[in-house]
Amino acid sequence: MLSPSVTFRRLGPGDAPVLRRVNALFGEAFGDPETYTGEQPDDAYLEGLLAKEHVFAIVALAGEDVLGGLVAYELDKFERARREVYIYDLAVAAEHRRQGIATALIEHLRGIAAGRDAWVIYVQADYGDDPAIALYEKLGVREEVLHFDIATAPASR
Prior knowledge:
By secondary structure, the protein is of the alpha+beta class. It has one domain (about 5-140): 3-Layer(aba) Sandwich (Aminopeptidase). It has five helices and five strands, in the order βαααβββαβα. The protein has helices at about 15-30, 35, 45-50, 100-115, 130-140, and strands at about 5-10, 55-60, 65-75, 85-90, 120-125. Strands 1-2-3-4-5 form a five-stranded mixed sheet, sandwiched between helices. A hairpin with a 6-residue loop joins strand 3 (about 65-75) and strand 4. The longest helix has 15 residues, at about 100-115.
């Protein structure tokens, strides 16, 4: 049950300290703190990201406490004049899970995406991440896809 004291908002310029706390939450939730907090960019970089119209960082707060966060990116499509939104990271602190926070974060993103005329929101889940899979199946249509990471070419010397 979602507490009425939980608030949701899109982060913007001036919110780099909150985004750092969201990244710490991601690192803890995903068991990968080094990736999310090991080499943090400076505030100017984070503020620049938060100022971009196509970058969405949404936070669930109880007072100043970060309970959950979501980062998504809007992608303009070439095949049709439309946009898609990709949820890249979504996590809720362990002690606040199963209270509707993840669903509410996605609902907040839905409102933003609709306001930007996005066609669809999509997300991927890892095999074995049953809670995430159950959440996404509740909200959308499941597709079986394969994901590949392709390394970029080394820079020429």
